[in-house]
Write a structure and sequence with these properties.
The chain has five helices and no strands. The chain is mostly helical and about 120 residues long. The protein has one domain (about 5-120). Helix 1 packs antiparallel against helix 2 (about 35-65) and helix 2 (about 35-65) runs antiparallel to helix 5 (about 85-120). The termini are far apart.
Length: about 120
């Protein structure tokens, strides 16, 4: 058994999913001048998926932190500070849901406009 969670692959996967991947997604959305709806929908779904993976990894790491002798693990994953770690997945999930909602709302608005144009008797 490892003495610390900071050397485990799950911890580094959490760092990758919590910081690197969402940052790359946000920067790519801000830098691009034009983005297709499919891309926005895909990025929104990926952000929601990342949020779920983050919560899963945080749960596993908090359980494993209780088993390690390292106090730093306990402080980060088993204390009140761990609640702050859940804010990142909450943010990513919220932004992802907003992106998906935006795409769906826009599609429905255009579908209603097409219907109204095809059925002028209403």
């Amino acid at each position: 058994m490892n003495n610390s969670l900071f050397v485990e692959i799950r911890f580094w996967l959490l760092v990758l999913c919590s910081l690197v991947a969402p940052l790359v997604i946000y920067i790519s959305m801000l830098v691009k001048r034009a983005i297709s709806r499919k891309t926005v929908l895909l990025l929104g779904v990926v952000l929601v998926w990342i949020a779920g993976l983050d919560v899963y990894l945080l749960q596993i790491l908090s359980l494993k932190a209780k088993l390690t002798p390292s106090l730093a693990d306990d402080y980060l994953f088993s204390s009140e500070l761990s609640m702050a770690l859940y804010l990142l997945p909450l943010l990513f999930g919220g932004v992802g849901v907003n992106l998906v909602s935006h795409v769906l709302t826009q599609h429905l608005r255009e579908a209603e406009a097409r219907y109204d144009a095809e059925n002028p008797e209403r």
